[in-house]
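hey so u asked for the seq, here:
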Amino acid sequence: MQKIIQVVFVVLIAAAVMFGGRWYMYVAQGSSPYDEVGIALNGYAPGPMRAWGCHKMQARFPGQLPPYGCGGPDGRSWL
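ran it, structure tokens below
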């Protein structure tokens, strides 16, 4: 039983590192704010992480429309 719990724990940590790393690469170093995988991962991120990511992308892409999930009520302004 302890071995099963250990394997599940390792798989959960690996998934968090893999998806979290991909999300961070999209937010901090992506070439475009309109990457489909990055937008999806940002949409699943908790509120504070998503807000931080949107503000980071707004600073990196100042003249562009926000991607889905980072837009205000009108869809043209950043959060």
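The chain has three helices and no strands. The two ends are 46 Å apart (CA to CA).
lmk if thats what u needed
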